[in-house]
Each structure stands twice: as C-alpha cells, then as structure tokens.
UniProtKB/TrEMBL annotation:
Pfam family, one: WRKY
GO CC, one annotated term: nucleus
InterPro entries with a match to the protein in the record: WRKY_dom (IPR003657), WRKY_dom_sf (IPR036576), WRKY_plant (IPR044810)
Keyword entries, A-Z: DNA-binding, Nucleus, Transcription, Transcription regulation
Signal sequence extent: none
Occurrences of domain WRKY (ranges): 65-131
Residues covered by region (Disordered): 131-155
Protein name: WRKY domain-containing protein
SMART domains: WRKY (SM00774)
Compartments reported by the entry: Nucleus
Upper taxonomic lineage: Eukaryota, Viridiplantae, Streptophyta, Embryophyta, Tracheophyta
MF term (GO), any: sequence-specific DNA binding
Keyword Nucleus: yes
Length: 210
C-alpha cells in the first residue's frame, strides 16, 4: 500500500513538473516575442528621436533675480556661461549629473524681449527618473513640452499617492496598447490561454472519472 502511495505521489509531481515547464516555455516565448517587436519598432528609430528631442521652456521669474536656475526636478552641473550677440543677458550651460551616462543638456538665458522671463532649451532625453518633489510640468519630461510665454507652468507633486497611481495606470495602459498591436504576441497569448483552458478541462474530466 505504501508503494502505491509513493507511485501516485511521484506521478502527481511529474505531472505538475510538466505543467510548470509548459508554462515556463510559454512565458519565455512571450518575452522573446515582446523583445523582438520592441527592437523592431524602436531600434532603428531611436537615433532619429534623440536628434530631434529639443524643446523650449519658459518660466516667469522676478526681474531682480540674477540667478539662471530653473527647478525642474533634476540635478544640473553648470559647465559654462557666455554672452551672446543677440542678448545682453548671459547664457548658462548645464549638464544633468543625476546619472553618469545621462546625455541631457540645457541652456538657460533671460528673454531678450522680457527680462522677467527665463528661456530654457533642453537637448536629449533623460535615461533615469527625476529626484521627485515639486517639478515643473513643462520640464518634467526632460524637455518634453513648453509653457506659453507670460504664464507660470503648473506644478506636479510626485509625492501625492493619487498622482503616482494615475501615472502608473497611464504607463500600464501604454504597455498594454503596445503589446496588443503586436500580432505575434496576441497569437501567442491566445494559444497560451487556450492551452490553459484545455488543460483545466482535461484535469476536471479526469477528476470526474474518479
């Protein structure tokens, strides 16, 4: 009787192991399909996107303030300053140093037509997250948008759990949208679901027989 129990337990463990192996293979297949699609969709376009990733941000300041600093949630190292021919106010040059390999640079200068307006030009795209806290929406994307002259950009508090939740939902929706556009991923997912249903039905039928 003990031998029969051991054989039954061994058979059950073998069946569970095969099922886990099948699920692992499906997971690897889905991961490979997603990586291939992600490379084909973005791999050759990335250099073009980096080259064109230049944006301008306007920030209203006190005219008496001579500090050419814009708080945008990132840490910057000033590496130069010079006076340009078309503007009596000096132009400051900064490089992001939150990450050693971050390529983003920015130039900050007062507007030649309005001394109470700082103009920042961002070049590149951050490869890391900001430090957090209060971030100017116009500059939060590392040069991903610009505010209208004469207005103060709105602020985004990243410590607010509601805002963080909304940002996570938006990222999840974007990932789902990207995956569903991949025909190979959709087919593999449908195959995996169908196989799981058939396995469950087979297991139920087997249990009903005993």
């Amino acid at each position: 009787m003990q031998t029969d129990d051991l054989m039954e337990e061994l058979s059950r463990m073998k069946w569970e192991n095969e099922k886990l192996n099948d699920m692992l293979q499906i997971k690897r297949k889905l991961a490979d399909e997603f990586q291939i699609d992600n490379f084909s969709n973005h791999g050759y376009c990335m250099p073009k996107e980096i080259k064109s990733n230049v944006s301008r941000v306007h920030v209203r300041i006190n005219p008496s303030d001579t500090n050419l600093v814009i708080k945008d949630g990132y840490q910057w190292r000033k590496y130069g300053q010079k006076v340009t021919r078309d503007n009596p106010s000096p132009r400051a040059y900064y490089k992001c140093y939150l990450s050693p390999n971050c390529p983003v640079k920015k130039k900050v200068q007062r507007s030649a037509n309005d001394p109470s307006l700082l103009v920042a030009v961002y070049e590149g795209q951050h490869n890391h997250h900001p430090t957090g806290g209060e971030i100017s929406v116009a500059a939060a994307a590392g040069g991903g948008g610009s505010s209208s002259p004469g207005t103060t950009p709105a602020s985004l508090d990243l410590t607010d759990p509601i805002i963080c939740s909304r940002m996570q939902n938006a990222i999840a929706e974007k990932m789902v949208s990207s995956l569903t556009r991949n025909d190979s991923f959709t087919a593999a997912l449908a195959e995996a679901i169908a196989g799981r249903i058939l396995n469950d039905e087979s297991e139920d039928n087997y249990n009903d027989c005993f």
